[in-house]
Design a protein that fits this description.
eleven-stranded mixed sheet, 39% helix, globular, 13 strands, alpha/beta
């Protein structure tokens, strides 16, 4: 074991502990709570709404209008939306209603080919939606609009869904907190003093606030799953390659990077997550068997409540561990083969993950240079930021310095970590097979206070592992903690076994309730 990243993690935890009284003092007053939802349409899943629209029991226009109204109601509290197309969306919804009324489309046709006909959805700013902002939330690209739809957006449109807006991210998707100098900071809908996560934090907050049904996110090291955890919703990181990433910004031409980065859905309801994966992976050549029933009693359910208690690794909190234990007990009652995994290798996943990531990829720049300079000096930008003169956010500068330091891992150790990663992959593939799932933390805890995410260096290892291994993973909400903040964990499986993750998510939603609204109606 090498000590660089462990020492960095330990130091960051120590600094956080010292600063904790300051954070608590600055956040001693709770901001106003979100207004509760009043429109009954906002309580239904996208799957239910699509069926009612097809049967002309409700109109697409009414649904789209209800979500636009809800977005306008909550966005002043959470600051999630960065650009919108509300008038175009309402026009498209009216067109859907007219086509149904005139018989131009039939129920049978759209049930099979456009299962989201007339249903609204929202999009992370990094996933191009033609005509709307795609700046990467960095000042040097301010004003840039997407020239065309990303392929994942196009797949949703082909399924009949109607895009409403694009949402906030960290600068160039570089962190677990959605803050930047272009659009500001997105906050948690359950308590505005806490982080909405990143990099799909705008999507997470908007969906968690009950202002969206299905969102498009992207994930390199937990960027779908961590904001899904913090905002109390479902999020799926798919098997690489089943959903195309073309149209995402930032991007790298490195093939390995393009297997680590995935795009996928976020949703309030597990059935919508399943439907969205079907829609988004429609062009996948692999038979994913997404509609094949899952017999929970025949599953092998492995679990770990943390990666191990060793120096420099922040332990998972009690709520996270208890959420996994509750799921374990539930699956035991259903007759599943539940196995407590004994894998000492997981305790090294922080340095193995970071070392492997930096050893094999040409990472996109975190501090994007303007047209007048070839590169950006991270240390100089840090000094400039202290006096308010930098073009870059402090969070992005910190992440850039971490990248410049190669994640506090010696580059020469890269091959060692890649070998350890491959050994772990082989071991997990053998265990999981085509009938196994693994219950594992998404993060060490629920949402931290704003500004604290940068100190949780080792917490990212839980999600990064699945990106590097190429495993699908679903974040599952499991209720709220004593502070009223969401808790949960991820479920991962072997490549192309996305259906197992999604099926387990649906089962756990049935047992434990899934998404809990931030405020009661």
């Amino acid at each position: 074991m090498k000590w660089g990243v462990r020492i960095a993690s330990w130091l960051s935890s120590l600094i956080l502990m010292i600063l904790q009284p300051v954070f608590l003092y600055l956040n001693r007053v709770q901001p106003p709570k979100l207004p509760p939802t009043k429109n009954s349409l906002l309580q239904l899943s996208a799957t239910e709404l699509a069926k009612k629209i097809r049967l002309r029991q409700i109109s697409s226009e009414a649904v789209v209008a209800a979500y636009i109204e809800r977005i306008k109601e909550v966005n002043p509290f959470i600051n999630a939306v960065v650009d919108e197309r509300y008038e175009d969306a309402l026009r498209e919804a009216r067109d859907c209603d007219k086509m149904l009324e005139s018989g131009q489309v039939t129920i049978d046709k759209i049930t099979g080919t456009q299962p989201l006909f007339g249903v609204p959805f929202t999009v992370k700013e990094s996933c191009g939606l033609k005509g709307l902002s795609q700046t990467g939330c960095t000042r040097v690209r301010r004003g840039i609009k997407a020239a065309e739809d990303s392929l994942i957006v196009a797949s949703m449109k082909r399924a009949g869904a109607i895009p409403l807006c694009v949402t906030n991210t960290p600068e160039l998707c570089s962190g677990f907190e959605s803050t930047n100098l272009v659009y500001g900071t997105t906050v948690n809908p359950y308590d505005g003093r806490y982080s909405a996560g990143g990099s799909s934090g705008g999507e997470g907050a908007l969906i968690g606030a009950g202002a969206s049904l299905i969102g498009i996110g992207s994930d390199l090291a937990g960027s779908i799953r961590i904001p899904s955890l913090f905002n109390g919703i479902f999020g799926h990181k798919p098997t690489p390659g089943i959903i195309p990433i073309k149209g995402h910004f930032p991007i790298s031409n490195n093939p390995k990077f393009q297997t680590y980065l995935v795009v996928g859905p976020m949703a309030r309801f597990a059935e919508d997550l399943h439907l969205a994966v079907k829609v988004m992976s429609a062009d996948c050549k692999q038979n994913l068997r997404l509609d094949e029933p899952i017999d929970i009693a025949k599953l092998n359910v492995f679990y770990m409540v943390d990666a191990g208690r060793t120096f420099g690794i922040t332990p998972t909190n009690k709520d996270t561990r208890n959420a996994i234990f509750k799921a374990v007990q539930y699956f035991e009652k259903l007759g599943a083969n539940v196995i407590k995994a004994e894998m000492a290798e997981m305790s090294e996943s922080c340095e193995v993950g970071i070392g492997s990531l930096f050893a094999t990829t040409e990472m996109p720049p975190i501090l994007m240079p303007s047209t007048t300079k070839d590169n950006v000096n991270s240390a100089l930008e840090l000094l400039k930021s202290l006096v308010g003169q930098s073009e870059y956010s402090k969070s992005a500068i910190f992440m850039s310095i971490f990248k410049d330091l190669n994640g506090c891992v010696f580059p020469s150790d890269g091959p060692i970590y890649l070998k350890k990663l491959e050994d772990l992959r082989i071991k997990l593939l053998k265990q999981l097979g085509d009938d196994g799932v693994f219950l594992y933390p998404t993060f060490t805890r629920g949402a931290p206070l704003l500004g604290q995410s940068v100190f949780h260096i080792s917490a990212g290892m839980y999600c990064l592992l699945c990106n590097l291994l190429g495993f699908p993973s679903t974040q599952v909400p499991m209720g709220l903690d004593a502070k009223g903040l969401p808790i949960g964990f991820q479920v991962f499986a072997a490549p192309h076994q996305d259906r197992l993750c999604l099926g387990v998510a649906r089962e756990l939603e049935k047992a434990f309730g899934g998404w809990t609204p931030p405020t009661k109606s």
